[in-house]
Design a protein that fits this description.
- By secondary structure, the protein is an all-alpha fold.
- The protein has one domain: Farnesyl Diphosphate Synthase.
- The protein is globular, with a radius of gyration of 18 Å.
- GO terms for molecular function: (2E,6E)-farnesyl diphosphate synthase activity; dimethylallyltranstransferase activity; metal ion binding.
- Belongs to the FPP/GGPP synthase family.
- Its cofactor is Mg(2+).
- One of its GO terms (biological process) is farnesyl diphosphate biosynthetic process.
Length: 140
């Protein structure tokens, strides 16, 4: 089994492509969630930018390891479409959590950059939008 050998094997590019495709689906679901209290377009655009800025750009080793672990636990080299989506979704949960933790780490450490870009809290227009959106939301 390729996943058990410590490498992703020949299907690495297809696994990565499926993983990235799942990201797009999950983000779309998040932004189109009709049960969310966040409905104004400027807030949705902020979430879109924030998630892309803080989650994408890494190697996705944690998330892809979740997919590999899922294969090992299932005892298969290739997952069904449904299992692949579930495994990728779990992997993205880890990646999104990591993005969240990195933002907090950057703030606590007063970092300047992350992955070659200014830290999220140092992007002036984004900080202003986040604060003003939150203030508007609590005063309505």
């Amino acid at each position: 089994m390729a996943a058990a050998s410590g490498s992703r094997g020949a299907d690495s590019s297809s696994s990565t492509a499926a993983f990235m495709e799942t990201y797009s689906k999950l983000k779309k679901e998040l932004l189109e969630d009709h049960t969310s209290e966040i409905t104004d377009e400027s807030s949705l655009q902020l979430i879109h930018r924030m998630v892309d800025y803080n989650v994408l750009g890494g190697k996705c080793n944690r998330g892809l390891s979740v997919v590999d672990s899922y294969k090992i636990l299932k005892g298969v080299d290739v997952l069904s479409h449904e299992d692949a989506f579930l495994a990728c979704t779990l992997g993205w949960c880890i990646e999104w959590l990591q993005g969240y933790l990195l933002v907090h780490d950057d703030i606590m450490d007063n970092s300047q950059t992350r992955r070659g870009k200014p830290c999220w809290f140092r992007v002036p227009q984004e900080v202003f939008r986040a604060v003003s959106t939150r203030v508007r939301g609590t005063t309505n």
